[in-house]
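User: Hi! I'm working on a homework problem where we have to compare a predicted structure to a textbook description. Could you give me the structure for the chain below?
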Amino acid sequence: MSHNLLDAPARVRTPFLPGPLLVLLASALWGTTGTAASFAPAGASPLSIGAATMGFGGLLLLAIAGRSAFAVLRSGKLGLLLLGALAVVVYPLAFYSSMALAGVAVGTVVTLGSAPVFAAVLERVVDGVRLDGRWAVSAALAVLGLLLITGGGWSASTSTVLGALLGLLGGAGYVVYSWSASRVMRRGFGSRAVMGAMFGAGALVLLVVLAFTGGPLLSSPSGLLVAGYLAVIPMGLAYVLFGAGLRHTSTSVATTLSLLEPVIAAVLGVLVVGERLGVGAWCGMALIGVGLVLVSTRR
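Assistant: Happy to help. Predicted structure tokens:
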């Protein structure tokens, strides 16, 4: 089994294949969610979109994993699995609600921009990982790029503050399930088995949420198409890639690489939705690109 970056000697570079590259591919697929969600019926709530995406997607990951997922459930690692499953539930509900309250730009910046910080703190406190200056610079560049993409400011209304807090909760949830999955994988289990068990368990709760909130989303052909795409591509396929990438990439690096997601979302917004980006936004995407190169080749 390949060693995780946390276990690698200090002088060994992170292999770009298959670790960071798989995480980048997953992030690119995640970046399509906003464009896809824009085709959902007008009455569809953010809770229903998040619950459908990771609820149906979680069942798909469980089906892909098959019996291996149940082997993980019987392994006695229930503490880490339940922690990760809880984070799987929290992340989409908090993230989509954050965007609904504070706007897509602020919700995305707070959720994804806070993830590398949460990951660094978690790995430092729990795993004793010493993060180097290259990671700090790459994370700072990426977060600065996100701020430039979104214009760098917002009004401090009550809904914005609440949305930002939910964004922080979403960022923490993303980091916790990434870290939990990585820890279970490093104990000898395959990525598909771990992701299937963790997301399958979280799907049980998310589907209950969808049962109460999903009427407008699931009652129209367009809503069913949107939910199907989100569950199969940016959820099912992307998390298979992400899980495989976590076997060769630390949580802090993976969460920083995932900052590619809003760049893809911005490009699709221009090409598909017809949005226009200023010079600052394009400069922000360039900064994120530099940060991704640095973190992909960090020692």
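For your comparison, note the following. The two ends are 20 Å apart (CA to CA). The longest helix spans residues 158-185. Good luck with the assignment!
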